[in-house]
Amino acid sequence: MDVSGEYVFDGPRPLVWETLLDPDVLAGVLPGCEKLELV
Predict the structure, then answer these.
(1) d(CA 39, CA 12)
(2) For the residues 21-26, what does the mean pLDDT come to?
(3) What is the pTM for the complete model shown?
């Protein structure tokens, strides 16, 4: 997978990390992601 680009999140750093570590949220923001499986 090759994902590039840049985005600045408008929120407190701990909340941003907590949100990005949520598999459902992460799958929703990755372009073309159809399934995210935790290993």
Answers:
(1) 28
(2) 89
(3) 0.57
Residue 20 carries which side chain, given as an amino acid letter? L
- Residue 3 CA to residue 13 CA, distance in Å, equals 21
Of the two residues 21 and 4, the one the predictor is more confident about is 21
- Asked if 20 and 26 count as a contact pair (C-beta separation under 8 A), the reply is yes
Task: Report in angstroms the alpha-carbon separations of 17 from 12, 29.
Answer: 9, 14
Alpha-carbon gap, residue 5 to 38, rounded angstroms? 24
| C-alpha to C-alpha distance for 39 and 33, rounded to whole angstroms | 16
